[in-house]
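Obj: model holo form, ligand = uridine-5'-diphosphate-glucuronic acid.
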Amino acid sequence: SGAPRPRVTFLGTGYLGATYAICYAELGYEVLGFDVDADKIAKLNAGEVPIHEPGLDELLRRNLAAGRLRFSTDIAETAAFGDVHFICVGTPQRADGMGADLSYVEASVTALAQQLTRKALIVGKSTVPVGTAEWVEQLVGKHTPDDLGVEVAWSPEFLQEGFAVDDVLRPNRIVVGVKSEWANAMLYAAHKGVFDLAATEDREVPLVVTDFATAELVKVAANAFLATKISFINAMAEVCEASGGDVTQLARAIGYDPRIGNRFLQAGLGFGGACLPKDIRAFQARAQELGAGEALRFLHEVDLINLRRRTRVLQLAADLLGRRSGPAGPDFSGTRIAVLGATFKPNTDDVRDAPALAVAALLAKAGADVHVYDPQGTENARRIAPELCYEASINDAVSGADLVCVLTEWADFRNADPVVLGELAAGRKVVDGRNCLDATLWTQAGWEYRGMGRP
Ligand code: UGA
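Output (holo structure tokens):
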């Protein structure tokens, strides 16, 4: 409040850009969202959120109505509107499977720079290989006259799907990579709404002001750490499986040490989604290019541990069904298997790189008649894995099944009644791929239960 706030634009209205644009309008900024996808822009202007994110619909409609928020496919209009332009386009995994594809960053920055007619700040938010900010700065220099003085900065984001609105409005830190006082002041003004909201709630949001490289690295380092934490506990699960230990109790016990902490220590089917798997691979590829590949070699192990959890579920399924494993893995032909869960985690409709869907596909490939149920992800799953059969309820999926595999920890599955399901199923055998069921309750209801990393 007080000082005038910059007008802000968000280029790319995917998951990241749409969420930011809407939340920034909610913080009181004048906002324009830009995308090349006319369909997406029309939907957003009509008050329709293209993604499933709790709370976002209401904020979109409220801020459209308040006139603070607009979406456009016109890059000249976008360039004219903004004092600060946030680049929020995707950086998918390259076709070679390792590095990041920066073609959307290049296209959006070039198009924007060519249309700028006054001084502005271009801020990268997309997850990128370290060194990209310098490259963007050169790109901007090439496409704007020197006397405009357009500057570049980097400010990574840490949104978690399902909590994205709160993560924008109430972030646990703000990181900015800047080269000048002007850019620093401009970015401070562009975050002022977040600091002001924190002040009214008697909180503080720590601000880390740093250089380009560090700002870029913070993002991938954070995701690499989270992935490593998950693979660490899954590695312990493997050792528990070999020794008769129980990884859930182990995790609880080590988690009481505040230096370790109890979050992100949930052993199970491992991490998926659009970020963690792709980010650790791109990070390794970039480190290799920089001659620092050795430093991140462990991330390769993190990846392998993570992928081995899928094989483990197949093994447990084969054990329960009495199927021998051949050289090509177990054969499930003639069995009907219910798969509960398709999304990469609960409370989202996102199935990108989802371990649940990957296992469902593997079971089907090995001959099983797979029936999938997911509370939100069916529509997206059908697009990626059309060969699977999708059901409209837990009961429909479980009816007649020889085996039930719970692969995403939706509350609906946790709360399902094993007695009722036991009457519907052909065989009372369950693999709990996320250790989310009450093993005692299921066992009492006559189910043969197998968890991950537990006896
Ligand atoms: C992740 C990070 O948590 C965000 O901070 C980051 O901003 C985001 O990636 C990104 O780079 O954009 P997200 O992909 O939404 O967020 O998902 P997470 O909640 O981190 O979960 C990732 C995966 O790890 C899920 O498949 C989840 O099932 C799995 N997981 C998580 C475990 O297997 N065990 C755990 O203990 C925690």
